Amino acid sequence: MNRDLATTEQLKQILAQLTDLTETNSLHWEKQTGSSHRYANSNGVLLILGPGEPLENRHTPRYLHITPLYSQKWLEINSLDLELHDSLMQLIAAVEAATLNQPPTDPFALTSDLLKLLDR
How confident is the model over 78-94, as pLDDT tens digits? Predict the structure, then answer.
């Protein structure tokens, strides 16, 4: 990947911070119903981690998709990126441990809270 060293280091720091927040249960990840993805919302930023293949399956490319909720911009970190691979895999291991026994949820479910927001 053609990227300057400062940007690579900043991305590694972001991954390390997300890993730390996950390991201390400060960042709550959820399994999505009908999907192999994990997702979290952190300070108005949607995080999508996928796919949810077993960690032993080292041939499946992994990714972290980062999207500010009120922006059309996004960033994706892929496990095929040799400079960020290890940091991303550490985050994936932490998320897998945190969501191991968690039932799936539907982030798009129609709830009374959502209906209240729409009924203005």
Answer: 999 999 999 999 999 99
